[in-house]
Amino acid sequence: MASPDENIPLETLVREFPLSVRAMGICMRNGLTTLYRLRFHFRTHGKFKNIQGCGDRVEYELTELLNRFNSTTPENQPKVIFKEHVEEVRVSPDRDLTPFKKATLTHHIQYLLSTLTVRALNGLKQQFGDSPWRTIMETLFEPDFDFLDIKNIGEKSAKELNGFRDKIATFVKTLALTEENDLSKQYTKLILRNAFTGLSENIDEILVATFDTNDKIKLFTLIHRLVSVGVIFKPAEKEIFQINYSFTKKNSKTYDTIAVDMNITKERVRQLKNTLQRQIGDYFEFITTLKVNDIASYDLDHSTPVIIIDHLKAKTINEKENVDFSYVFYSIIFGLLLRSSHAVLGDDEFIANEPYGKKPSKFKNCYLIDKTIFESFNFSSFVNDIYSKLSIKIEESYSIYFDGYLYSFLKQPNLKSITVLKNICEQIILHEFEVIVDGNGFLQFEKNTRQKTYEYALEVLESKSQMMTVYEISKAITERHPGLNIAPESIRASLQREKGIFIFFGRRSTYGLRKWETDQDNVKGGTIRDIIEEYLMTKDSPVHISEILVHVLKYRKTNERNVLTNIKMEENKRFVFFAAGFIGIKTKTYDFDTSDYKGGTGPRFTTRYMAKFNDWNLEDVVNHYHQEFGYNPIHVRHIIDKKITSGEIGICENKLVIK
């Protein structure tokens, strides 16, 4: 007869204790294919009749089979697991642990579960279902337990699960040997080692001064140290993180500087920035495995329906822990810690997009809101709507009934805690917009006819539909709004800040609207140099000055000499000059034949020499110079046009007249 301590396959069992076809089928369909699995199911559920299709007869057969092969009861069987690095661990490994250590063990097991692959985790769920962890642990450490006996678990997953079990055993030993007052530090070390490969060498150095006098983790001191030693971010990511989430930004570089220092493109920096902002929470996921009771409180009341994270909160923590994080970063971290109870509003979110290309408006603060309420109300739409109402000019003060207004943003009309919701919304609009609900329950929108300086200028330019100097704009504003005197210098400064709305013309403080560039063919903002640079960027080869002049004349009144002088004096050296009056742009590489750029200021272009072309067709003369001497046709035509303009030669019915 087989030993009861062996994990005997069902096919072997039925040779000594035959089962009915029905009982055999039920066992096979439900994975009860070994003695161990039968025994575990009965120990967990106390019966087999909870299995679909199992009646009294099958229940009797299977219990008799267990009685036949269990010469010793499960409670009296030796329960020892043998591992090279783990000494004897009992079936109930936490039996001698204090309640505090048991809670730590449970928390750690939950963390270890989160690190398992989907296949391994599904295998555990299939085998144990919703059984209590104490029952599961007793089974895991039985001497005859084998993960390979679990359906759909292969050698790779079994190896992973054996490692999972070994980590539990090792942690139990650590807990047993750790003093109660040192438990938080040891557990934090374990979490950091698991989260960051290769951290062991620096772990003690990083944890110095990380704990306060009450042995609580100063979380942001810990994060600062991890970022500083480079275990969370790669070098470029670290620099981008400091730009985005620093409170003072005093030591931050620019994105362009990062590109140069790291020898990467600006586009790559942009991609890294977008990825970091989108996945910032993932970089700090490890903090969710820390025990909340081990972390400093930061004066957060977890029971309150809304927690406001503002600049003052950030400044207070920064000074207390000697770090430099923004209020947005604090909201992200607190959002991770409280994600089971609260959701975050305002962490790097935009309230609304602005018109005329202006940068979108951001939240001034961040809000951790009770999750149930957050999922029942559209806070983003609510804040956006308030912002929109305040952004337009209000000629006369008015009010709306706040309770009724809130109902239009409810996702669940039967929300019970409408009073709590109302209080949250009142706090948000007060902190974001300094708007209040009066004692009668009405939301007040006060008259705001005073506009920003650029809005007055926008109003004038749209009404005039023409370019104007800042002096003309200032005068027009005063005419439209008597008593309102805005200095030209203030107008100039305001318009230069709103580059998405306004364009300037040359260096004469003349301004217009950027949308005119699209709506009107003869409007182009910027200097003459900017216009030429933009034009040359569209060309694959250098362009003759005559063609450049034609293009510039669409937008500016000027001449060839002025254009040439302008671009030759350009301090940034954006332009490249070739022979025969051809010009290129420095940032482009040209593939051309230098013979096409032969100069044309010699004896062949004197009036005496050109007399032989008297009565020739203009195009024939141009072709003659090109074919006989290799001059570029554009250059030849330009020289002849200049001689005609100066009166040296004439033209009649497209034929040259040379005296």
Question: What's the quick description here?
Answer:
The chain is mostly helical and 659 residues long. A hairpin with a 4-residue loop joins strand 11 (502-505) and strand 12 (510-513).
E-strand count: 17
Q: Which stretches are poorly predicted, pLDDT < 50 over at least 5 residues?
A: 1-5, 71-91
Average pLDDT taken over every residue = 79
The CATH top-level class label of the domain at 528-597: Mainly Alpha
Structural class: mainly alpha
Q: Helical stretch count?
A: 30
Q: Percent range for helical residues?
A: 40-55%
What fraction of the residues are assigned to beta strands by DSSP?
Answer: 5-15%
Q: Radius of gyration over alpha carbons?
A: 40 Å
Biggest sheet character: 3 strands, antiparallel
Descriptors:
659 residues, mainly alpha, Arc Repressor Mutant, subunit A, 3-stranded antiparallel beta sheet, 30 helices, disordered N terminus
Structure description:
48% of the residues lie in helices and 9% in strands. A hairpin with a 4-residue loop joins strand 11 (502-505) and strand 12. It has 659 residues and is mainly alpha-helical. The protein has a three-stranded antiparallel sheet with strand order 3-7-4. Strands 10-12-11 form a three-stranded antiparallel sheet. The radius of gyration is 40 Å and the shape is elongated. Among the domains are: 10-76; 453-519, Winged helix-like DNA-binding domain superfamily/Winged helix DNA-binding domain (Arc Repressor Mutant, subunit A), CATH 1.10.10.10; 528-597, Arc Repressor Mutant, subunit A; 603-657. The protein has 30 helices and 17 strands.
